[in-house]
Write a structure and sequence with these properties.
Layout (H helix, E strand, L loop, with lengths): L1 H15 L4 E8 L2 E8 L15 H12 L3 E6 L5 E8 L2
Length: 89
């Protein structure tokens, strides 16, 4: 989970040109909820399906390995919001 958050924060610092970044971890019943949001330049999420970057592939692989779910919301000029749900136990 640490490496997932690390990669998402690194992507924000590297690409988003954001002024603010929020990382929030909470629990709900048997889930770890992770939210990473920024006010950066955003991007077209369709690009993720064709991304060749190892960082994104590793992140998706880790989420899948943990039986998690990830939702990415972004648009050019609108920032990015990523929500993860990771089962606990």
């Amino acid at each position: 989970m640490y490496r997932i958050v690390q990669e998402l924060v690194n992507n924000t610092l590297k690409h988003a040109e954001a002024r603010q970044l929020l990382v929030q971890l909470t629990t709900s019943e048997n889930l770890l909820l992770i939210d990473v949001e920024d006010d950066g330049r955003g991007f077209d999420t369709e690009r993720l399906s064709t991304s060749e970057g190892m960082g994104w592939k590793n992140t998706m692989g880790r989420v899948k390995y943990l039986n998690g779910k990830m939702d990415v919301q972004s648009a050019p000029g609108k920032g990015t919001s990523i929500h993860l749900e990771i089962p606990l136990g």
